[in-house]
């Protein structure tokens, strides 16, 4: 689970399920998502690999509450004293004060239901896919909503994309033409598509189309997915083409 450099300021740490992204502004690092529980040490190694010493993790941005994204947030927040940022609708779940609503799998295709059963099998089972334990409760220091600005990457814009979860967000760096999609968009199989395991699939598809259109309008080059390899160049155009398949 070693980190890889996508661009000089952008690094990815892949996990068996999902991935985390590190954005570097000089000696300060912003982490977008934290991987599943138990990933803190791998992410600490990645932060050190960026040349950022202890205490240089400035903030943790959680795109949503699912444990493959928020699983190591509590440990990293405690270790570094980093600010934790999440959408106001998902914040109660991340804090452990509200139950995590399950995805609606009723209308999901057979392959998605089978994948869900594997990924969410009891922890420690012999399933082919790694099970993911629940995320420990984590403080949320800043609750955000559509249009809020975060102080990294020359100014990061929060985009509200409900559907995967009620509080799902994407993060756009206009200055660097970079987009972090969370699980609203995944890069699987034939190319970018709406993510799986959604609270509301229809709303996820609508959010997917809006996000693809925004990426095209902003001339986005680099797209960082919650699942799947990043698009280093031509991301906005690729997302626009993907959205056309869901019109």
Question: How would you describe the overall organization of this protein?
Answer:
Helices cover 26% and strands 26% of the residues. The longest helix is centred in the C-terminal third of the chain and has 17 residues, at 201-217. Helix 6 (201-217) crosses helix 7 (235-244). It is of the alpha/beta class and 247 residues long. The chain has a seven-stranded mixed beta sheet with strand order 1-2-3-4-5-6-7. A five-stranded mixed beta sheet has the order 8-9-10-11-14, covered by helices on one side. Strands 12-13 form a two-stranded antiparallel ribbon.
Attribute tags:
7 helices; 26% helix; single chain; alpha/beta; 247 residues
Shape: globular
Total strands: 14
Total DSSP helices: 7
Radius of gyration: 17 Å
Low-pLDDT sequence parts: none
What is the percent of helical residues? 25-40%
Note the gap between the termini: 37 Å
Average residue-wise pLDDT:
92
**In percent, how much strand structure appears in the residues?**
25-35%
Output the helix-strand order. EEEEHEHHEHHEEEEEEEHEH
Q: Classify the secondary structure makeup into a structural class.
A: alpha/beta
Strand order in the sheet with the most strands: 1-2-3-4-5-6-7
> Biggest sheet, open or closed, and with what strands and sense?
7 strands, mixed
């Amino acid at each position: 689970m070693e980190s890889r450099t996508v661009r000089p300021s952008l690094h990815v740490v892949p996990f068996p399920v999902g991935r985390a992204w590190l954005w570097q502004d000089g000696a300060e690092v912003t982490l977008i998502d934290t991987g599943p529980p138990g990933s803190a040490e791998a992410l600490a190694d990645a932060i050190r690999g960026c040349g950022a010493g202890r205490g240089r993790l400035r903030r943790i941005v959680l795109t949503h509450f699912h444990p493959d994204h928020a699983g190591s947030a509590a440990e990293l927040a405690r270790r570094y004293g980093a600010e934790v940022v999440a959408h106001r609708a998902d914040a109660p779940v991340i804090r452990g004060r509200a139950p995590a609503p399950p995805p609606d799998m009723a209308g999901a295709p057979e392959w998605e239901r089978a994948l869900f059963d594997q990924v969410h099998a009891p922890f420690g089972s012999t399933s082919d896919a790694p099970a993911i334990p629940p995320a420990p409760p984590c403080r949320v220091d800043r609750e955000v909503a559509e249009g809020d600005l975060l102080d990294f990457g020359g100014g990061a814009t929060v985009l509200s994309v409900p559907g995967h979860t009620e509080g799902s967000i994407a993060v756009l760096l206009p200055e660097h033409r970079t987009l972090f999609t969370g699980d609203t968009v995944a890069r699987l199989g034939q190319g970018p598509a709406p993510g799986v395991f959604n609270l509301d699939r229809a709303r996820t598809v609508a959010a997917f189309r809006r996000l693809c259109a925004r990426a095209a309008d902003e001339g986005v080059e680099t797209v960082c997915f919650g699942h799947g390899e990043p698009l280093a160049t031509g991301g906005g155009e690729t997302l626009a083409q993907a959205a056309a398949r869901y019109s």
